């Protein structure tokens, strides 16, 4: 699943695009997913995560060690 944030779990959302004549067509809102490399000092290695911009802010706030520990507690492989 490419458009999926590993930290926040954000996925694309779906809806309708409404034109001026009020015709409706399907559209989707994609999260802003970035592939970022983070250094884990405790394991002395780098990990690559697919994170949204909100996930990047979460990592900046809580720290990469806490976020990786939370992901492993959820059962995700890193």
From TrEMBL:
Database matches in Pfam families: Ribosomal_L28 (PF00830)
Keyword list, A-Z: Ribonucleoprotein, Ribosomal protein
Domain of life: Bacteria
Transmembrane feature ranges: none
GO CC list: ribonucleoprotein complex; ribosome
Signal peptide as annotated in the record: none
GO biological process: translation
Record GO terms (molecular function): structural constituent of ribosome
Segments for region (Disordered): 1-28
InterPro entries given in the database record: Ribosomal_bL28, Ribosomal_bL28/bL31-like_sf, Ribosomal_bL28_bact-type, Ribosomal_bL28_sf
UniProt key word Lyase: no
Family: Belongs to the bacterial ribosomal protein bL28 family.
UniProt-recorded name of the protein: Large ribosomal subunit protein bL28
Originating species: Lawsonella clevelandensis
Lineage: Bacteria, Bacillati, Actinomycetota, Actinomycetes, Mycobacteriales
Gene that this polypeptide is encoded by: rpmB
């Amino acid at each position: 699943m490419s458009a999926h944030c590993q930290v926040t779990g954000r996925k694309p959302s779906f809806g309708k695009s409404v034109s001026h004549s009020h015709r409706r067509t399907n559209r989707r809102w994609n999260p802003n997913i970035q592939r970022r490399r983070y250094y884990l000092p405790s394991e002395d290695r780098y990990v690559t995560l697919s994170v949204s911009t909100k996930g990047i802010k979460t990592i900046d706030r809580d720290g990469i060690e806490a976020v990786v520990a939370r992901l492993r507690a959820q059962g995700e492989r890193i």
